[in-house]
Every structure is written in C-alpha cells, then in structure tokens.
Amino acid sequence: xxxxxxxxxxVMTRVERNKAMSRVEALNSRLNAVQTATENMSxxxxxxxxSIINETKTEIAALEKLLATKxxxxxxxxxxxxxxxxxxxxxxxxxxxxxxxxxxxTQEMLRVDVTTFRVSTTVDHRNLxxxxx
Length: 133
Fold this sequence. Notes:
This protein is α+β, with helices and mostly antiparallel strands. It contains four helices and five strands, in the order ββααββαβα.
C-alpha cells in the first residue's frame, strides 16, 4: 500500500485492492460462522466470542471504507497540459486516461504521460489551476 505523504491517504495497487476485497469476503464468512457458533454458548465463551466478533466487524468496516475511496489522480500530457482521473488505483486511472485519450504511442496530440500519474494534493491541484488565471 502506498501512503501519499502529503495527503496521508493510503492508495492501493490493483493487486492490493483485490486482496483487500478477498479479505472482506473471508472476514464476513468468519463473522457469520462465529455468530452461528455463539448462539448456544455459555456466557464465558460468549464474551470471548463477542470480542472476536467486534474485532472482525471493526476490520471489515476499515477495509470497506478504504475500498470505497476513489482518488483524484493528476497527470500530464507529453508536450504540455494536464488532466485528472478519478479511480480506485493508479493502474485504473492510467487505463481510463488511455481509453479516453488514446494510447500515448499512437497519438499525435494529447499524449498521456503515464509516468506522471500521482494522487492529487491541494497544493498540486491549486498550482495546476493557477495556469488558468
């Protein structure tokens, strides 16, 4: 997981995002199994299981929040100019830009520079927007 130092936001790669989605599924399955198992337990065992249930619910909530977060990725065009894409991962943002503007090796204008994709920060966005003033 990549943590953007300026925004303190964690940005996942596609592989990490897929692993996190699998983890949520596994945790939900575990949660269902534990809840079913605790229905007929004594109070002492039930208290321990309740702790496990609460920890699992907390982890699920944190992962689901992270999985639901789209980021604004800023990028430049070769030869000048910039734009942005909203996406869950950097790979997804690059794919969206190439789909929208064409592959950089085949275009004459608006050639996406895939090496410039980065998570937008307030300062970076403000600096880019200042070019319009």
